[in-house]
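Quick review question:
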């Protein structure tokens, strides 16, 4: 056989071996050197908070150099489940989702588990007795948020020397973690204090438009004189209620106490103007921590199961001059 042919064959053999080694060395797991891909099922775009939360995930993925497959479910659980199934088919490295409600996730999360894909639950939580269905949760302590709202009301009633206050509540999405726990925390904080009577809770679904509808209903039912305190589970609904109150000649923050949750810029501006009395902070900026956990998982490290961000509250009793722009 000619010398040159032998050399060509030897080079071809070496190339084949090199290619086979390269293929064998590229693990199917998330530790592969190619960019990690995160499948993210976002529940919607219902509030400034939600939009800020999505932006936080997009920015963090870009900073880490991860691919982000983002699906917006527009408030529909069935679309979230379909998105998670598509992430499984695509074999993303990690699935992240914010469950619109707490139940109905066991089947699809079992499919993700069987596919060997870690799931990080962000923001809202699921109800399950099988903690193996998810790798980690990161989100607010919603019960603490509700308690902060109730504690402000007690402080405000003390400052006013109020003998009795009628309270109405505009709640978030039924059967969601923030709705359930913001309500529970608030009720726990004011429990046993005879100065407060919660006369009605109405569902505003975290939407500004439904916050307006709820406020109209409450004003028609109880009149401006019949309502002393409004506890609203998010700023969007609060801002909707503000518009209705002011159209009815009611001075929010003065004729009626307003307590809100989230900390959107527009609501903080209203707090500074004295139109809202207290805002309990709920940070949407969870993307950085999520991507840190994605990176850790990709390197085979374990991550804490429960992760809560630091949060505070702002009220008429605080000096807000140093408060930085909210960014959402
Ligand atoms: C809370 C989040 C809530 C916000 C609302 O973490 O789930 O959903 O408070 C949003 O603004 O709609």
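Suggested answer, residue by residue:
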């Amino acid at each position: 056989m000619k010398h040159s042919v032998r050399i060509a064959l030897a080079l071809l053999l070496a190339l084949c071996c090199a290619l086979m080694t390269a293929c064998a060395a590229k693990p199917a797991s998330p530790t592969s050197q190619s960019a990690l891909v995160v499948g993210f099922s976002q529940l919607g775009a219902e509030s400034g908070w939600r939009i800020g939360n999505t932006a936080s995930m997009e920015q963090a993925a870009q900073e880490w150099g991860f691919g982000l497959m983002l699906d917006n479910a527009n408030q529909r659980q069935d679309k979230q489940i379909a998105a998670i199934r598509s992430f499984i088919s695509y074999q993303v490295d990690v699935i992240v989702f914010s469950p619109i409600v707490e139940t109905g996730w066991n089947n699809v999360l079992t499919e993700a588990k069987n596919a060997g894909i870690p799931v990080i639950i962000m923001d809202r939580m699921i109800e399950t007795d099988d903690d193996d269905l998810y790798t980690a949760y990161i989100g607010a302590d919603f019960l603490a948020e509700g308690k902060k709202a109730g504690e402000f009301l007690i402080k405000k009633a003390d400052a006013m020397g109020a003998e009795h206050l009628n309270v109405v509540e505009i709640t978030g999405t039924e059967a969601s973690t923030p709705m359930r726990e913001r309500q529970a925390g608030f009720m726990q904080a004011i429990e046993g204090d005879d100065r407060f009577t919660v006369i009605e809770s109405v569902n505003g679904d975290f939407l500004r438009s439904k916050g307006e509808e709820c406020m109209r209903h409450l004003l028609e039912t109880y009149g401006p004189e019949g309502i002393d305190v409004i506890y609203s589970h998010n700023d969007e609904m609060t801002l909707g209620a503000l518009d209705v109150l002011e159209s009815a000649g009611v001075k929010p923050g003065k004729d009626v106490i307003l307590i809100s949750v989230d900390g959107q810029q527009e609501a903080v501006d209203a707090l500074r103007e004295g139109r809202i009395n207290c805002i309990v902070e709920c940070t949407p900026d969870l993307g950085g921590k999520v991507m840190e956990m994605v990176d850790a998982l990709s390197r085979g490290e374990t991550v804490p199961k429960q992760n809560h961000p630091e949060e505070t509250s702002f009220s008429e009793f605080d000096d807000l001059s140093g408060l930085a722009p909210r960014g959402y």
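Why it works: The two ends are 74 Å apart (CA to CA). The pocket of beta-D-galactofuranose is lined by residues 46-47, 49-50, 123-124, 140, 178, 206, 234, 236, 261-262, 282 (CB under 6 Å).
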